[in-house]
Design a protein that fits this description.
Blueprint: E1 2-6, E2 9-11, E3 32-34, H1 36-51, E4 56-62, H2 68-77, E5 81-85, H3 95-109, E6 114-118, H4 129-137, E7 140-151, E8 154-161, E9 164-171, E10 174-178, H5 190-196, E11 201-204, H6 217-220, H7 245-257
Parallel strand pairs: 1-4, 1-6, 4-5, 5-11, 6-10, 7-10
Antiparallel strand pairs: 2-3, 7-8, 8-9
Helix pairs in contact: 2-5, 3-4
Bound molecules: flavin-adenine dinucleotide.
Residues 6-8, 35, 37-38, 61-63, 91-95, 98, 102, 117-118, 120-121, 123-130, 221, 223-225 line the site of flavin-adenine dinucleotide.
Length: 261
């Protein structure tokens, strides 16, 4: 079984701060981590590998060279191979161009049985890249996976819905997006960390990924971000002190006044 996990390195905060002048993310001084959902995707792949002898897990990321540390962490958790797609030409790509580049790299890897992505990245937050990769590869996709069971070439997935879950079956190859309910990612082991630094993170530049230059970067991206901004801080609200009947009565009256009760 050949498993591929797409990993994005993101700033270590859900409170992404923007430079008010340029509208770009402030990355300085913010430590980077593997996107949380991607760790669940990796854990799912590692469990399938543990249960299916001869399986391999390849992690793929597109990002700057600093993403090397995220790749090492994935290797230390148990991935067999790491490929970092990195180059100036890829910069400025929107989600469609990003998924086109990643899908092209995955075609080059070839022979995959299952591709796992996180549901959503905590910085870009679109949840578009996984489904778009599946679309560009022309394979089935199952999103919001909270449970994955493999039986031969058939995968059965429980998809989280707002008010329950849905059971979906697909034949391999398939792309699945993971949510945090899927599993608890394992920790790196000291031996894993040691081995991770003995392995090589393959860097694939522009010349290594056979993409059409017209479809990547800012120019090749069909969407344009006109403006990004942090929403204005809302007022603090009114605080009622006390845990007695009178305070509760005042609270109920105030909510009724606003037609909230
Ligand atoms: C017009 C435009 C210009 C942009 N310019 C830039 C720019 O100059 N620099 C920049 O850094 N970003 C830029 N972006 C943002 C960039 O497109 C997104 O960061 C990227 O496409 C991922 O989208 P997302 O964060 O919403 O991921 P989501 O779709 O929320 O991620 C879902 C899953 O897809 C996978 N995934 C997502 N991204 C990657 C990745 N890079 N490598 C591997 N797996 C991945 C992960 O498994 C992740 O959990 C731009 C976006 C737009 C719209």
């Amino acid at each position: 079984m050949k498993l591929i996990v797409c990993i994005k390195q993101v700033p270590d905060t859900a409170e992404v701060k923007l430079d008010p002048k340029t509208g770009r993310l402030i990355r300085d001084g913010v430590p980077s981590i593997i996107n949380p959902d991607d760790k669940n995707a990796l854990e799912a792949a590692l469990r399938i590998k543990d249960e299916n002898e001869g399986s391999t897990v390849t992690v793929v990321s597109m990002g700057p060279q600093q993403a090397d540390i995220a790749m090492r962490e994935a290797l230390a958790m148990g991935a067999d191979e790491a490929i970092l797609i990195s180059g100036r030409e890829f910069g400025g790509s929107d989600t469609w161009a990003t998924s086109y580049i990643i899908a092209t790299a995955l075609k080059k890897i070839g022979d995959y049985d299952m591709i796992l992505c996180g549901r959503q990245a905590i910085d870009g937050d679109t949840a578009q890249v996984g489904p778009q990769i599946a679309e560009q590869l022309g394979i089935a996709q199952i999103t919001y996976a909270r449970d994955i069971k493999l039986n031969g070439r058939t995968v059965t997935v429980e998809r989280m819905l707002e008010d329950g879950f849905q059971v979906v079956e697909a034949e391999l190859p398939v792309l699945i997006t993971a949510i945090k309910e899927l599993n608890t990612p394992r920790y790196m082991t000291p031996r894993g960390i040691y081995k991770a630094y003995e392995k090589q993170v393959k860097i694939w530049g522009f010349a290594d990924v056979p993409v059409d230059e017209a479809k990547i970067g800012l120019k090749g991206s069909p969407t344009n971000v006109n403006k990004t901004f942090s929403p204005e801080q809302k007022g603090k609200g009114e605080m009622l002190e006390g845990a007695d009947r009178n305070t509760v009565k005042t609270l109920v009256e105030k909510l009724a006044e606003k037609h909230l009760l």
